[in-house]
């Protein structure tokens, strides 16, 4: 190896290379952003179209369907989801991760523009919005007070906090939660209006005409010009009470005569509470590319500036804080990284017995890991849980190169060679093996780059970081390691501990050689071992439970609450108070630290929804994990009437609190879909593994349908718009004009008095003014009212009418088992033309499972071809890769023993096992080829190569196992994913190492007898050239 020879000859040159890598690595580490996970952006474009007054069926037919038809041809669409509701269509187009969001949004705009002529004339222009699917709140702030009212808290939060926090770098949006927006409430009394012959439209017209602020022009004189402004005089409560509605010279009717006027909240039913008290909340949403830790730190710093200046009695605090989990998980990984390095160095010391020899890998391993940050920076990645996890696993890989070189040089030193010659000879012997193992490991990770979807974005950084660490470790092993060996290793008498280790290793080598001699006489024994390993691997893949990702305790629990269809916000608030009453005693327990409640839920939910976040105490301060607390809460909430309560933990990879099971039924009619959903729900109720089952469709929401007698209305000169405006104001309320207070404008909210409008008959008494002579007509002469059940939402999925069944998983029941069960149930109970699909985590699981299997095969093929090129043989790579089933069998044994699932983490660890299992086979096969080249007989070469490679194989296996042990035994934030990878690597490497020592020599003996080394052809060519030379 010319590079290694140059390094031994020019030690300063080798040292400078390592110092440069160390310097640039440290610089990159300081400048790299810190995140929880890789930057996972799933581009989404939302198309919103308003069609006021149209039913859900009309919106679906005239708005949603035409737009979806135009969108279907756009490149890179992953899914199209839509909801058609009364008066609005909402379509969400999710694109593949490789699609540029700006270009995708432009394509959507063009498609919408093409369909505009097909939409109803009175529908609003569709609004096209870009968003990243990862946008969600990372911090909840609560503002409370013992003295301030809800109105005052809202005003302070909006004026001071929201405006300032929205300017913090990295903040995308600041949502105000539980806000009681101040308005001038004008509550109309229908009886007072009727008695004075006034209508709602009269009030609206008067307010709009009188409460104006206009420029009336300017007065221009010889010396100066004056602007004339008509001022708005209605800003105080008394001003509106005195507003004249009508005056005939004898009687003046004012607004205060027909309405109760007060300054108050627009919506008194909305509530946001923290630990049992009413507060106002602010939710911080970051830009998708921002570092959440930096954003949260900057927001908290801003809050610290506010606290000294808060009004008397006010307090400011945070509840849900994503940075707690992120920072805790990253700290845990850093601790695991340091512990793994310490344990690896300790193992090397035990094997080699001298501090000088131990110092060499203690230097080269940190240099390799720090140099890996150069690769992370060049690839544009961040320091996150995946890249740090890759570095933890890299410890066992990068130390292998150093050990292989160090052990071989140490052996030559023990044979009496001087240090410089021992370094020269030793690196020449194992240089090819180092390059071969490095190439194989990198080739193993290459296919992961092509993994699509969320999992692909997550693990691309993981794979490339590992590849960078292995590549740099190989460079350092070929340059710095032999230099350090030539300078630090000395021939010396062995101490008692070292002599004991040598005696133990010599004893192992002796008995291992004897075992091989017996095995070589029973060459088919290797086939039996391989058949058993393949059978165990096949059994594991077919029988072990499967999931998308291991469930993680992220320190919080989300609770979704849904009331009966049509339930009012006030009724939902009462139900949420019952839920809170059950939960509040848990604050005195050991697990819970905060309860945040919101009702109704977020904007995409209705009045009959509620939402809670339970923040748990730090992991080391509570006895139970989130899943135990979740089970307790589920039991605690079981008997609360009139609501469906669904508690969930946050998803590990996809984020949010969505159901892991989301099974989509598609068809042509909702009647048939609802029938199918009912059949599936009733059958699935017998499966204890599925809990909290629900659907996203309900057609029984009570509605009041107003039917206008249009002929009579036209005859009497009353427009539908005027009747609709009257009902809207009296039943829901409407902002008519504005008033000013303390430099800020607020709405004047016109609404009917709730106590006066409680029955359908009360609506009929309302008066409408005719255009023909101003005649007053009762509403019940023009409109009939009836209570009906109306479909609130009509969902589509991938352009088909669809109903989604959602469910959580009971403990011990995997996502793969749930989806397989539902698939089988649908095949058995539903007609063959029923469409089956998946959403959310279920879709990611299905797509990633198929992709991982293809990537595993790709990795095997690539490694085989790389080895074939290096060994100049197709037989030798086959022998080496026969170690892979051994590692997989060990992985399956570990998964079965612990009850862990086959998931995206364990599957990627299995891909790693291709390289980890193969490297021991490479050491044996490559050295056997060298010995055969030196003239040793075939059987003797096998025995000698296996014996002389036993020590480095045991040392590298021990360091890999010890380096993985902190992952296997991890606790705290995010430990579940680390344990999953650590389990597969530990159990796979352990079994593969034990069996490789037998299987590789036996299969080499069986298959490679008539093969040669990579130099065979070169020697033959040289012989033929020499043979021809004398003739010439």
UniProtKB/TrEMBL annotation:
Membrane topology recorded in Swiss-Prot or TrEMBL: Multi-pass membrane protein
Superkingdom field: Bacteria
A Pfam family matched in the record: ACR_tran
Keyword Plastid: no
Residues spanning the membrane: 333-352, 359-381, 387-409, 430-450, 462-489, 524-541, 850-871, 878-898, 904-929, 950-969, 981-1004
GO molecular function, one term: xenobiotic transmembrane transporter activity
Gene Ontology CC terms: plasma membrane
UniProt entry tagged with the keyword Transport: yes
InterPro entries given in the database record: AcrB_DN_DC_subdom, Acrflvin-R
Subcellular location: Cell inner membrane
Keywords from the UniProt entry: Cell inner membrane, Cell membrane, Membrane, Transmembrane, Transmembrane helix, Transport
SUPFAM superfamilies (alphabetical): Multidrug efflux transporter AcrB pore domain, PN1, PN2, PC1 and PC2 subdomains, Multidrug efflux transporter AcrB TolC docking domain, DN and DC subdomains, Multidrug efflux transporter AcrB transmembrane domain
PANTHER family in UniProt: HAE1 FAMILY EFFLUX PUMP PERMEASE COMPONENT, PTHR32063
Name of the molecule in the record: Multidrug efflux pump
High-level lineage: Bacteria, Pseudomonadati, Pseudomonadota, Gammaproteobacteria, Oceanospirillales
